[in-house]
Amino acid sequence: MQKKIIVSGSRPTGNIHLGNYFGAIANWVALQDEYECNYFIADWHALTTGYAETKDLRQNSISLMADFLASGLDPSRCTIFLQSLVRQHAELFLLLSMNTPLSWLERCPTYKDQLANIKDRDITTYGFLGYPALMASDILIYGADYVPVGEDQIPHLEISREMARRFNHLYSTEIFKEPLPLLTKSKVLPGTDGRKMSKSYGNTIALADTPEEVRKKVMGMITDPARIRKDDPGHPDVCTVFAFHKVFNESEVPEIEEKCKGGCIGCVSCKKNLQEKIAAFHTPIYEKRTELLSDPDYLVRLIHEGSDKAMTKAEIMMKKVRQAMQIDF
Ligand code: TRP
Ligand code: SF4
C-alpha cells in the first residue's frame, strides 16, 4: 500500500530550541517510517518577514540541517531539502497567486496579527501578504495528505485547502489533494522563565547551547516563588522546573511532587537532578550537531541531494499543473 504523504517546513531563523524540538521536530522524527515525509528548510519563508537581513540566512540554513540530523531526521528515510533549491515551489506560487483572491489573504488572522504587532521592520509587502500562497505551494506540490503543524498554522492550511479546491475547479482537474492538519499531542515545555519558550523572550534552551550553558540555565529557572526555605510547602504546578521534570524525568514526577508539597526537597537539589536528566537528552544531540557542523561541505552536499530528490517529485506535479493550465509547451 502507498504511504500517505507528509510535508512540513521550518524557518531557518536561528537555533532550534527545546520548545521547537518537542513541539515539532520530535514528531517529525516519529512520522518518518509510517509516512512518506518531506521536510524542508523554509528559507524563502524567512524572507517574507526578514527580506532585509539575509546575512545569516546561509549559515542558519546549514545549522538547521545539522539540528534536523542531530535530532534524528534521517535522509535515507525521508526527504530533507532546502526550499530555495526546488524552484518549482516558486513557479507554483506564481501560478497560484494569479487566482488567489486578495480577500483570502487579507482576512488571514496571522496576517492581521503580525501586521499589528511587528513594529521593528516594514512587512507591508506583497511577499508577506502572499505568504499563505507560498505555503500552499510547498504543500500541494507534493500531493500532501497531511501537514504536521501547530495550532498557529491552521488558518494557513485552511487557505491551502481552498486553493486546491479552487484550482481543481477552475481548470477542471483533480490534481491537487486537500491536505489535512496532523495535530499530534506534543509535550509542552515552558521557557526558563515560565512563559512560552521563544527566542524573542530570551528564555530558550537551544540544541546549540553548550552543556555548561544548559546547566546554568536550569539553575536559573524560576521555581515556586512562595518557597523561600526548604521546608516551606511547595506548589509544583506553578514551577518551571517541575514542568521540565514532566518531560525529562517522567518516572520521578510523583515522588518529586509529593516531596515538594511536603517541603522535603530543596529547589537546588531538585534542579541538580533535572540538570542530569536534561544533559542525558541534550548532550548527545549537542555533540552530534557540533560534529556535523565541523564539516559544512558535507551538510551542503546532503542538502543538495535531498533537494534533487524533492525536485523530481515536484516536477512531476508541475507537469500536470502546466498541462491543466494549457501552458505546457
Ligand atoms: N509557515 C511555517 C512557519 O512559519 C513554515 C512552513 C512553510 C510550513 N511552508 C510550510 C509548514 C508547509 C508546513 C507546511 O513555521
Ligand atoms: Fe520546583 Fe522542585 Fe522547588 Fe518544588 S522543589 S518548587 S518542583 S524546583
Average pLDDT figure: 94
Which CATH class of the largest domain? Alpha Beta
Low-confidence region ranges: none
Helix content: 40-55%
Q: Please state roughly what percent of the residues sit in beta strands, choosing from under 5%, 5-15%, 15-25%, 25-35%, 35-45% or over 45%.
A: 5-15%
Give the ligands present. tryptophan, iron/sulfur cluster
In which order are the strands of the major sheet placed?
Answer: 1-2-3
- State the major sheet: 3 strands, parallel
SS-derived structural category: mainly alpha
The CATH topology of the largest domain, please?
A: Rossmann fold
Secondary-structure element pattern, one letter each: EHEHHEHHHHHEHEHHHHH
Count of domain modules: 2
Summarize the structure.
This protein is mostly helical. The chain has helices at residues 18-31, 43-50, 57-71, 88-98, 102-106, 109-117, 126-129, 131-140, 154-170, 211-219, 240-248, 253-261, 267-293, 296-324, and strands at 5-10, 36-41, 79-82, 146-147, 180-181.
Keywords:
mainly alpha; 6% strand; binds tryptophan; Rossmann fold; 14 helices; binds iron/sulfur cluster; 2 domains; 329 residues
Describe the structure.
This protein has 329 residues and is mainly α. The protein folds into 2 domains: 5-188 and 296-324, HUPs (Rossmann fold, 3-Layer(aba) Sandwich), CATH 3.40.50; 209-290, Tyrosyl-Transfer RNA Synthetase (Orthogonal Bundle). The protein is built from 14 helices and 5 strands. The chain has helices spanning 18-31, 43-50, 57-71, 88-98, 102-106, 109-117, 126-129, 131-140, 154-170, 211-219, 240-248, 253-261, 267-293, 296-324; strands at 5-10, 36-41, 79-82, 146-147, 180-181. Helix 9 (154-170) links the parallel strand 4 (146-147) and strand 5. The longest helix has 29 residues, at 296-324. Bound molecules: tryptophan and iron/sulfur cluster (SF4).
